[in-house]
Each structure stands twice: as structure tokens, then as C-alpha cells.
Specification:
The complex is a heterodimer of chains A (about 525) and B (about 750). Chain A has about 525 residues and is mostly helical. Chain A has one domain. In chain A, about 70% of the residues lie in helices and about 5% in strands. The longest helix of chain A is centred in the C-terminal third of the chain and has 32 residues. The relative contact order of chain A is 0.10. Chain B has two domains: about 500 residues, no CATH class; about 100 residues, no CATH class. The chains are: A mainly alpha (about 525), B mainly alpha (about 750). Chains A and B meet through helix 8, helix 13, helix 15, helix 18 and helix 19 of A and helix 4, strand 1, helix 8, helix 9 and helix 30 of B.
Chain lengths: ~525, ~750
């Protein structure tokens, strides 16, 4: 089995969704059920291959790229089709392949206006190709193509299926990210031209290969240049995360996006940014990372506090959850900014945990909107009485989101705070310890806004407006889509080593060039 | 038995899931599952206790320790953990890791010489890998010694009795099944917490009991005051958790990257950790103790927590969860003892917090008219005694008091529940009075527990409280801890007085309000039997640590100080071997004085309420007295400070200000950039493209058309055009950049 998947496993999970989307394009729009079936079957097939990859993955060599493939692509500039999966990308790929089928199941009877399952599901499948592609690409240009490729389907999803201000939100999302990408391509090109040439078929050529570039890790590059190039990556990835103060596209995009879009956005898209830091920016430019680390850490903890305060001020449930992402990604970035294996392991765990938990919160928010046709917190209340199961799941998700031990969120949060106590050599200890305390303070605020949300939405009695409303508790599709997420939030909380042991060796390997490590 | 303790928390955890899954379909709504689970837990805990006593009586040979530890560290643990990595190679390093700690603890046996006990009984530690990071494996596991054994017994006993009590007390409740499910989850979390072998595990248990506390305080969440109380409890505890997280992190790094309790303690005792780090860690952890164990000034959530059902108050907010902080200090005593220099000081932060809490908490109990609030402040005050005991170095006294208090305070709370069962009111001024005759069993058990609380000899509380005061007088540097001794003795009088007042309002005088209009009668056996069992405990459990020195020297050695003998840890992970550590001795003068002071409090309250003597109406006549009363009535203003000033401003103006900045400054800038670029595009098109380029390059309009096309697209807001525009700029920038480098 191992050999069977070796050559094409990674490629298959990237392009199979695209094949599914193409098939759907060939089917007439009116065949709605067929579209649903094709989309679901495709995503499940991809998921099954993903499971096979998980089974075949060699967990003793997580630092090594597996299911590796290296084919020529754009020969003129020596950009190659290099894909592979190691311990850093595996959890994120698994997360993506896991979430997409659940989103499609949830969509079954929940298509947002203007309906059109064909286009909607095709967009989701195209998105999947882009997301998985970003996680498997090992060539900078290939990575960039996938990274950008993700933008379009999400732009259309928000712009067509979004709420009242969808035009503004989608345009803002697109332009903001494109702006970051523009600076990132500058950084990529600069890296390309400034890195030494390597022999290719007897010729000396520059390379986009992340593997080669990580081996080079900016050796011989002037320090200021490394810092500048890192700055380009920082803008590209930082906007995607999003880091304070580049986060303002996020609440708008989330609030306006359809539920499915929000879930995918929170679960996977934000991770493209943090993944970029871990996979590209830090290993290739450790010296630049070292200079930027205190700034990233500082912005991260500002994001934690600021995001939490923003949450407290929100009057809309979905916008509140969106703001909480700013705070949560702050913990992830704090972990990354320590440049220690401990911190980055925590960050990767945090990415997966946040994906599951915030995804869950958006699902519930979507269903609340579906039942009550509003997400205004003031008008809600007594959810536990009218839809007890949804109410309990909201309580569960809030607890998970505030980092309750025993659930997944804790293992992203606590180790990240812990890692800040002792950042990589050469980084200011007092500064990072200060960050640590601020981040710990953020956990209080997180409990504050989440429990307050819970109190206002789930506790108490329904407002007069909805007193007699006939509210349907969970549908079958809700059960099918949510149960796996809940189960994984619990399992990862009880046995965190499921992720840590996958990432650990790969992270240590990727940090081998960081100064003082 | 001692190596399979992980089963004990697992049983109620399974019960939790089972009750949620099928509880509603069962004839007794799931309570039968909870009771059965707890009964098994209690029996198993007794088995552990027997096993531990056996181990202390026949300690394993020193050489064998390592082998024992290695042998028991095979791949068992939490259910989920064991499925997932049964592989032998993973568990072997875990065994090796616990090895040095074991040998370190046993290797220092000779240093403990001079002690009358020569035997070192190492704890039984058993671990499996929980997760790995930076190539290091971190364990989760069980650690059994006298302290954890005691906690297992206390928690499972009280929980069992509370379960039985609840089947009657909350019968017919709107969420009967949920109530029992969360009782089970709480018990599981608490048991998990007390057998922790690592500090990380303690954090997990600590937070999980907090969750259950939240869920049970807010049990009747339809009413806003209840959910407010639940939120307050959780949030105040979260504030303390900042200290918990930071303190544990400091210890983790101070101990060179381990969460292992034995290793951390051993390193602290052996001076391998700088004093400064220990002090910082101790101070941080103290914040956590203050919130969880209701110490002044983070105690404010505890009285509000009485909004939960009474059995919950008895189990969680009196007997078990609130002592989690005390337990943590006791568990990491090596850290605190050395961090606060307890053995050589005359005052330290911990002792001072305890002393202040025991007096100020007790004073607040005076102005309450709700019997549960009286008991809540009494709990705060008694927790103050425990913290003070640990703060002055009287470890055994503090833990002994934890033990006796759990029993008599659970009795008092359940007694209050018994009184209120029919009238659904806890207001003793308005709705009680004269219950002595109609509820004799409740009355007598309540009085017995009160005697234990007031420390009347020979009731349980006497032995433990006396030992604390003896500790405050004798331990520490020269002269002991005088201030703590005075405050502790003063506290005895306060305790006597407020409890006498409570008994007057509840049981004597005329029946008032609801209790006068209701037909009152004694409750059924499911309520009274737990009361009777606990009241018997309140009489006898003090005898397990009777001293045999001085006045009591006639007590045979094999009966004296059994609690100390079996519960106090031995070995290098406990500061017992340090020169500065010693045990207080029984002092008949002190015992008499403190008892008399306590009884004076009782007497004064008796004269005031029964005989109507004393300066009644003082608060009307004297401005000072009125002021004092107001201060107490407003709870020293702390609630106003926390709820209105701090929480109010954070979620109000501060959050709104942050949001305003977000919308208007940061996002305003973003929007400004967007519109400016669009305007700039328009300007370029109008003046450069149409004006300059067109006129200058007349005839060769192709180039102009192309650029105009680009800019026109930019103007119309087409996203793709924007994208192209940006990339064009980026490529130019890249070129400049590369050339410049």
C-alpha cells in the first residue's frame, strides 16, 4: 500500500476535488441531487485517500517529506512541481480533508441564497484543491499559485452567497489578501534571485525549491536583506492569519460569508498564513525571523487582548465569533514567534484545534441564524429551552474555545503561553515573559466574552419575540456534520500526542537553522 | 491496587457519559448509575487506603524502589491513552523518567535522620506518555501517597453521601438527570486532580472541577442571578488561573523542563532551584489558591456560588473543590516551604493571607441572613485556617483540618438543605426559627457539626484547629508566627459567635415566614442518614490524630498521631527532612485558652440572642458601629470594585473603545487607502492619460490605450484588474529590490 500511494498520493488529494468540480460543470444545473451526490462522493473519496495517507505515513520519520514527487514544471526559471507531506503539513491536510465533506453534508438542505447547488458545491471543491495544494507544495512558485488560487472561490462564495454587505466584504477580502500577496511575491522573487544557483541538468540555475532553500537558510545573505525579505513574507502571511493590525477584513468577511464559507475560512484558510510562517518564512530566513520575532510576538499578544475586547463589544453573534479568531490566532502566532519547537508544536496544534472549534461555533451560529433569522445577541436568549441540543453544543464549543483542558483548545493555548517563558536563544527573555503574562491575561477575557455570549444566547428564557416560535432543534445533517467535529475536539483534548508526535520531529528539523537552536 | 488507581476517576467519568446517554430512560433518572459508581469508588478508595497503610507499615526496601517504579510504569493509563500507544518502546522512556525521581527520593533517607520515623515510604507513581514536544515526552499518571489517599477517601465519601442526599433533595427537579451527570463529572475531575503525578495534570483537573462548579452553580440557568453567579465563579477563578499557569510554567522551567511533581519538589528541597524562582512561583500559585480556595480578596465568588443547589454547595463549595487550592499547596509543599522560607520566617504571604481571610471572612458571616451565606463565609474563614496552617509550616495540621472540615461542613450544609427542603428559602431571619422541635435529627446533627466547627473538645474540629494554633505558636523562626496565633485565636471567638447566631435564628424562637405557614416535619432517611453519618464523623474523626505529648502523654504511641504517621509524606519530595521543618507539640495551655476564647464567642452570642443582653441597637446610636456594619454589608466593597468597576468597564467602555478604534481608525485607514487608490487612478486617467499622454504622444496611441485600459479597469472596481495592477507593481518592486541588493 505504501508503494502504491507513494508516487501519486499527494497529487491525488490535491486534484481529485478539481476533477469532481469539472464533472459537475458538465452536469446540467437542474440536476441538484446529482450535484450533491457528486460533490459528496468526491470529497469522501478524497477523504478516504487522506485516511490511506495517514495510515501509510511513516510516523518515525515525520521530518522527512513523504509521498514525494518532483517533476519539471516551468523549466525556464527552474520552477518545479514538487509536492510532499511531512509532519508539519500532515495535520493540516487531515484537517482540510476532514472538514470539507462535513461542510458539504451540512449544506445538503441549507444552501444559501441564491441557491444554485452546482456553483456552490463546485466552489467548495475548487477551494479544497487550492487549500490542500498549498499544504503539499514544496516549490515556492507552486505554493504561491495555490495560495492565490484559494482566493477566487472564496471571493465568489462571499460575493455571491454572502449577506447584505457581501460586495464590500468580498472586495475587501480579495484586495487585502492580494495586497499581502503582492509583497509576498516580491519576497519570493528576491529569495529566488539572491539564493545561490544549484546545478540542474548540468546547468547552474536559481531554485524555488523550498527544500533547497531551507538548506541554504539565507547563509551569506546580508542581515538587512534577510530582514526585508522576511518583511515581505510577513505581510503576505500576516494578513492571511490575520495579525493585528491587518485583521479588519476578517470580521467583515466572516459576518457576510455564508455559514459554509465561514467554517472553511476559519477552519482552513486562516491556517494558510500561519503555515506559511512555519513552512517557508522561518526555515528559509531564520535570521530575518529572529529580527521579526519580538514584533510578531508583540502583535500577537496585542491581538489576543484587542481581539477579546473587540468580542466584548460585538452585538452580533457571528461577528463576535469572527473577532475571537483574531484572539485565538494570536496564541498561534505567539507560539510561532518564540521560534522554539515547543512554541511551534503548540502553534500547529492550535491551528487544528481552532479549526475544529471555531468551525463548530460558526456551524452553530449558522443554524441559529437559520432558525431565528437573526444573530443579534439582544434578541436571542433561552436557546437551551427552545433547542436544547444546539444549546448544549454551543456551551460545549464555548468551553472548548476558551481553552478548557480536556478539550482540544487547551493544547494550542497553554503550551504556546509556556513556550514564551523561554524563547529561542538571543530573543529577549523579559520581553517574552511579559508577553506570556499578557497572553495568560487573555485567557480571562476569552472566558469573559464566550461565557457572556453563552449566557445571553443560551441561558435565560426566550425573548417575547420568539416565545411562541416553533424552533426545530438539530436536523439529521447537523448530527452528521457536527458529531465528528465534537468527537475530535474531545479526542485531541484527551490524547494530544496524536498531533504532537506527528509534528515534533518535523518542527525540530525545520528549526535546525534558527540562530542559537 | 496502588498501581491501578486510574480506575477510580474513570468510573465516575464513565458514569457521566452513561447518565447523559441513558439516564432519562432509567426509572430513577440516572441517579442510580451515579450512586453505584460512587459506591464502587468509595470502596476502591478504602482499598487504596488499606494498601497505603500496609505500605507505610512495611515500606519496600530502598533498592527495590527503582525496580518497583519501573515495573509499574507499563502502558496503562487513561482509557483513551492506552488504546493509542500500547507500543513498548514508547513507555520505556516513561519508566526511565520516573526512575531518577524515585531514587532521588529514596537516596535521601539518611538526611532525614534525627526523626523518630526512619522509614521512608516512597509514593507509588505510575505514568504513561501524554504528549511529546521538542523531543521530550511528558507524562500523565497517578501518584499515590498519604495525601492523595486521604483525598480519595474524603472526596468519594462525601460525594457518595451527597448523591444519596440529592435523590430526595432534588427529586422532581427540572434537570434531575443533568444534575447527577454533572455530579459524576465533578467527582471524576476531582479524583483525577488529587491523584495527579504532574503539575500539568493538576491544571487539567483544576479547570475541570471549575467547569463542573460553573455548570452546577448555574443549574437553574433560566434565572439570571444564577447564571450571573456561575459566570462570576468561573471568571474570578480564571483570574486566579493566570497565577496558576504562570506559576506552573516557572516551575516547569526551573525544574529543567519537567512537570513531574516528585521531581519538582525534590529539586526545590535540595536547593537545585534558585530561591528567587521558587518565590515567584509560590507567589503566582498563591493567586490561584486565593481564587479557588476563596481567600481574601478573590473570595467573592464563593458566597454567590450558593445560588446552586444545596448538595452542590456541600460537595463542591465546602468539602472538596474549594480545598483544591489547599491540596495544591500541600502537594507542592517543597516549593512553597522553600519559596516562602516558611521554616525560618515569622510572617509570610501565605500565612498572612490565611490569617486575614479567617478573620475577615468570619466577620462577614455575621451580617448574613441567608443560612447558606453564613456557611459560605464560614467556609472561607476555615479555608483561611488551612492556608494559614500551611503558611506557618504546620502541614499536617492544615491537611487534618481539611479532613475534619470536609466532614462537619458538609454536615452543616446538608443540614441547611434539610431545613430548607420544604420551605424553599434559606432566609433564616425571615423564614426559619423554632425548627428544633419539628426537625430534631436535623437540629442535633447541626449542633454536633457546629461544635466541631467551633472547636469544642473533643469534637473533630478541636483537634485540627488546636494543632494549627500550636503550629502558629511554635513553628517558624524564633518566636513562631505570633500574629497568626493571635488572629487564629480571635477567629475562634468569631466562629463561635456567628454559629451560635445561626443556630438561634434557625432553631430557636418562633417559627417565622414560610416555616410558620408550612407544615414542617423531619425529612426522610435519604436526607437524615447522610446527616447522621457525617455528624458521627464530626465527633470521632478528630481522634485519628490525638497527640501523646504533655497533658496527653498517657495515649499509647500506636494510637497517637496516626493521621500524621500515614498521611504526611516522607522522602526528599517533602520538606519533612529539612532541618527547618518540625512538628508542633500539643500545648494544654494553648488548647484551653483557644477553647475558652471560642466559648466566649458562643457565650456572648448566647447572651445577645437568648437573653437579649448587650448593646442592642448600637448601629442606630453609634455612627462608628453603623459604618462598620455597612462595610460588612457591602462586603468591603470588593463586589462593587470587581463587578461594576473592573468587569463593567472592560465589557462596557473599554471594549466599546477598542471596537471604535477598530472600526474608525484601523478599518478607517484601510477604507481610506481603498478610496484614495481609486481616486488616484481616476486622476491619473483624467490628467496623465487623457491630458498629458494623449497630447504628447499623439498618433502613437496604442501604448496609451493599453495603460488607459488598465487604469479604466481599476476605476470600475473590477477585482481582477486590481490584482493585475498590484502584481505589476510587485514585479517592478522586485526588480528594483534585486538590482539594489
Amino acid at each position: 500500500m505504501k508503494d502504491l500511494l507513494n508516487g501519486w498520493g499527494a497529487t491525488a488529494v490535491v486534484f481529485l476535488p478539481l476533477v469532481g468540480a469539472l464533472v459537475m460543470i458538465a452536469i446540467p444545473k437542474s440536476e441538484e441531487t446529482l450535484h450533491k451526490v457528486v460533490a459528496l462522493v468526491t470529497s469522501l473519496a478524497v477523504f478516504v485517500i487522506g485516511v490511506a495517507l495517514l495510515v501509510d505515513f511513516d510516523y518515525d520519520n515525520t521530518a522527512k517529506l513523504q509521498f514525494f514527487q518532483d517533476k519539471s514544471w516551468i523549466e525556464v526559471i527552474n520552477s518545479r512541481y514538487i509536492v510532499g507531506i511531512d509532519g508539519i503539513s500532515l495535520p493540516l491536510i487531515a484537517l482540510t480533508l476532514f472538514v470539507v465533506p462535513l461542510v458539504i453534508i451540512y449544506s445538503w438542505n441549507h444552501f444559501p441564497e441564491p441557491h444554485n447547488p452546482k456553483a456552490f458545491l463546485a466552489l467548495i471543491l475548487i477551494l479544497e484543491t487550492g487549500m490542500v495544494g498549498t499544504f503539499v507544495a514544496q516549490d515556492l512558485l507552486l505554493f504561491f499559485v495555490f495560495f492565490e488560487f484559494v482566493l477566487l472561490p472564496m471571493y465568489f462564495m462571499i460575493g455571491i452567497y454572502g449577506g447584505e454587505q457581501r460586495k464590500y466584504a468580498s472586495l475587501k477580502f480579495f484586495l487585502y489578501t492580494a495586497f499581502g500577496s503582492a509583497l509576498m511575491i516580491v519576497a519570493i522573487l528576491a529569495t529566488y534571485f539572491l539564493s545561490p544557483k544549484i546545478p540542474v541538468d548540468g546547468q547552474m540555475m536559481h531554485t524555488f525549491s523550498m527544500i533547497e532553500l531551507s538548506k541554504w537558510h539565507g547563509a551569506g545573505l546580508a542581515r538587512n536583506t534577510a530582514i526585508l525579505i522576511f518583511g515581505g513574507f510577513f505581510m503576505g502571511f500576516g494578513i492571511k492569519v490575520p495579525m493585528f493590525p491587518f485583521h479588519t477584513w476578517l470580521p467583515d468577511a466572516h459576518t457576510q460569508a455564508p455559514t459554509q464559507g465561514s467554517v472553511i475560512l476559519a477552519a482552513v484558510l486562516l491556517k494558510l498564513g500561519t503555515y506559511g510562517f512555519v513552512r517557508i518564512a522561518i526555515p528559509i530566513l531564520p535570521e530575518g525571523a529572529h529580527w521579526w520575532a519580538p514584533i510578531i510576538g508583540g502583535l500577537a499578544v496585542i491581538g489576543i487582548i484587542y481581539g477579546a475586547l473587540g468580542c466584548l463589544a460585538q452585538t452580533d453573534m457571528k461577528r463576535l465569533i469572527a473577532f475571537s479568531s483574531v484572539a485565538h490566532m494570536g496564541y498561534v502566532m505567539l507560539g510561532i514567534s518564540t521560534l522554539t519547537p515547543f512554541g511551534i508544536n503548540a502553534a500547529i496544534f492550535g491551528m487544528v484545534a481552532h479549526g475544529l472549534i471555531t468551525g463548530m461555533l460558526f456551524f452553530i451560529a449558522g443554524s441559529v441564524k437559520d432558525r431565528f433569522h437573526t444573530l443579534e445577541i439582544k434578541r436571542l436568549g433561552g436557546l437551551l429551552l427552545q433547542a436544547p441540543r444546539m444549546g448544549w453544543l454551543l456551551a460545549f464549543s464555548c468551553m472548548a474555545s476558551l481553552g478548557l483542558p480536556g478539550l482540544a483548545g487547551f493544547w494550542g493555548e497553554f503550551p504556546a503561553i509556556l513556550s514564551a517563558y523561554e524563547p529561542a536563544a538571543g530573543l529577549s527573555e523579559p520581553l517574552f515573559r511579559f508577553y506570556m503574562v499578557v497572553a495568560a491575561l487573555g485567557t480571562v477575557l476569552a472566558a469573559g466574552y464566550l461565557l457572556w455570549l453563552l449566557q445571553r444566547v443560551a441561558f435565560g428564557t426566550p425573548s417575547e419575540e420568539f416565545e411562541d416560535a416553533d424552533i426545530h432543534d438539530m436536523h439529521l445533517t447537523d448530527y452528521l456534520a457536527w458529531t465528528p467535529m465534537i468527537v475530535f475536539i474531545v479526542i485531541l483534548g484527551i490524547y494530544p500526542n496524536l498531533i504532537f508526535r506527528v509534528t515534533d520531529a518535523a518542527v525540530i528539523h525545520s528549526l535546525s537553522a534558527v540562530v542559537g537552536h | 491496587m496502588l498501581t491501578h488507581v486510574w480506575i477510580i476517576p474513570l468510573i465516575p467519568a464513565i458514569a457521566f457519559v452513561a447518565i447523559l446517554a441513558i439516564g432519562k430512560k432509567l426509572p430513577r433518572g440516572g441517579s442510580e448509575i451515579g450512586i453505584a459508581a460512587l459506591a464502587i469508588c468509595f470502596v476502591l478508595s478504602l482499598g487504596v487506603a488499606a494498601g497505603w497503610i500496609q505500605r507505610v507499615n512495611h515500606p519496600p526496601a530502598v533498592e527495590a524502589n527503582g525496580a518497583v517504579a519501573a515495573a509499574v510504569s507499563d502502558g496503562h493509563g487513561e482509557a483513551a491513552a492506552s488504546d493509542l500507544h500500547a507500543a513498548a518502546e514508547e513507555t520505556t522512556p516513561a519508566a526511565e523518567e520516573s526512575h531518577p525521581a524515585e531514587s532521588a527520593s529514596s537516596g535521601h533517607e539518611e538526611e532525614a535522620s534525627g526523626h523518630e520515623e526512619e522509614h521512608v515510604t516512597p509514593p507509588v507513581v505510575r505514568t504513561v506518555t501524554w504528549f511529546q514536544s521538542n523531543g521530550v515526552k511528558f507524562d500523565v499518571g497517578t501518584m499515590i501517597d498519604g495525601l492523595s489517599t486521604l483525598m480519595l477517601v474524603v472526596v468519594s465519601l462525601i460525594s457518595l453521601l451527597v448523591h444519596v442526599f440529592s435523590t430526595d433533595y432534588v427529586a422532581g427537579d427540572r434537570r434531575y438527570t443533568h444534575f447527577f451527570a454533572f455530579l459524576s463529572l465533578f467527582t471524576a475531575s476531582m479524583l483525577f486532580y488529587v491523584i495527579s503525578s504532574s503539575t500539568l495534570q493538576m491544571i487539567v483537573g483544576w479547570e475541570l472541577v471549575g467547569l463542573c462548579s460553573f455548570a452546577l452553580i448555574g443549574h437553574w440557568w433560566e434565572e439570571k442571578p444564577n447564571s450571573d453567579a456561575a459566570l462570576k465563579a468561573f471568571l474570578v477563578n480564571r483570574v486566579g488561573d493566570i497565577g496558576l499557569l504562570c506559576g506552573m510554567i516557572v516551575l516547569f522551567f526551573a525544574a529543567k523542563g519537567t512537570f513531574d511533581v516528585v521531581t519538582i519538589n525534590t529539586m526545590a528541597n535540595e536547593g537545585q532551584i534558585r530561591h528567587m524562582l521558587l518565590l515567584v512561583a509560590s507567589l503566582s500559585l498563591m493567586t490561584a489558591v486565593m481564587s479557588k480556595s476563596g481567600q481574601f480578596i478573590l473570595h467573592t465568588w464563593l458566597p454567590d456560588a450558593m445560588a446552586g443547589p444545596t448538595p452542590v454547595s456541600a460537595l463542591i463549595h465546602a468539602a472538596t473543590m474549594v480545598v483544591a487550592g489547599i491540596y495544591m499547596v500541600a502537594r507542592l509543599y517543597g516549593v512553597f516551604f522553600n519559596g516562602f522560607s516558611i521554616g525560618t520566617a515569622n510572617i509570610n504571604v501565605m500565612a498572612a493571607i490565611g490569617a486575614v481571610t479567617l478573620v475577615f471572612g468570619g466577620l462577614l458571616a455575621f451580617v448574613q441572613s441567608d443560612i447558606k451565606k453564613v456557611l459560605a463565609y464560614s467556609t472561607i474563614s476555615q479555608l483561611g485556617y488551612m492556608v494559614m496552617a500551611l503558611g506557618v509550616g504546620a502541614w499536617t495540621a492544615g491537611i487534618f483540618h481539611l479532613f475534619t472540615h470536609a466532614i462537619f461542613k458538609a454536615c452543616l450544609f446538608l443540614g441547611a438543605g434539610s431545613m430548607a427542603h420544604h420551605i424553599h428559602s434559606f432566609d433564616m431571619k425571615k423564614d426559619m426559627g423554632g425548627l428544633r422541635k419539628v426537625m430534631p435529627k436535623t437540629f442535633w446533627t447541626f449542633v454536633i457539626a457546629t461544635c466541631a466547627l467551633v472547636a469544642v473538645p473533643p469534637f473533630a474540629g478541636f483537634w485540627s484547629k488546636d494543632e494549627i494554633l500550636a503550629g502558629a505558636g511554635q513553628l517558624g523562626g524564633d518566636g513562631g508566627y505570633p500574629l497568626m496565633l493571635i488572629m487564629g485565636t480571635l477567629g475562634a471567638a468569631i466562629t463561635g459567635a456567628y454559629m451560635t447566631r445561626a443556630i438561634w435564628y434557625c432553631f430557636f424562637g418562633e417559627r417565622r415566614g414560610a416555616s410558620a405557614t408550612h407544615e414542617m416535619h423531619e425529612n426522610g432517611p435519604r436526607i437524615t442518614v447522610p446527616l447522621i453519618i457525617l455528624s458521627i464523623g464530626a465527633i470521632v474523626v478528630g481522634l485519628v490524630n490525638v497527640p501523646n505529648t504533655g497533658f496527653l502523654s498517657w495515649v499509647p504511641g500506636s494510637y497517637a498521631l496516626r493521621f500524621e504517621h500515614y498521611v504526611e509524606p516522607t522522602g526528599a519530595y517533602f520538606p519533612g527532612g529539612l532541618e527547618t521543618f518540625s512538628h508542633p507539640e500539643f500545648n494544654i495551655v494553648l488548647a484551653l485558652v483557644s477553647t475558652l476564647v471560642g466559648l466566649t464567642g458562643v457565650l456572648l452570642a448566647y447572651l445577645w440572642y437568648w437573653k437579649d443582653l448587650g448593646p442592642h441597637g448600637l448601629t442606630e446610636r453609634s455612627r462608628l458601629a453603623r459604618g462598620g456594619y455597612k462595610v460588612l454589608e457591602y462586603k468591603y466593597g470588593l463586589d462593587i470594585l470587581y463587578v461594576d468597576v473592573i468587569a463593567g468597564s472592560v465589557k462596557g467602555p473599554i471594549a466599546r473603545a477598542a471596537n471604535w478604534v477598530n472600526q474608525n481608525v484601523i478599518d478607517g485607514f484601510v477604507n481610506l487607502v481603498g478610496t484614495s487608490v481609486r481616486r488616484a487612478g481616476g486622476w491619473v486617467y483624467k490628467y496623465i492619460d487623457q491630458g498629458v499622454v494623449d497630447t504628447l504622444v499623439d498618433g502613437s496611441g496604442a501604448a496609451a490605450d493599453v495603460s488607459g485600459e488598465v487604469l479604466r479597469k481599476a476605476q470600475t472596481g473590477k477585482v481582477q484588474a486590481y490584482g493585475a495592477y498590484l502584481f505589476l507593481g510587485a514585479t517592478v518592486l522586485a526588480a528594483i529590490f534585486v538590482i539594489a541588493s
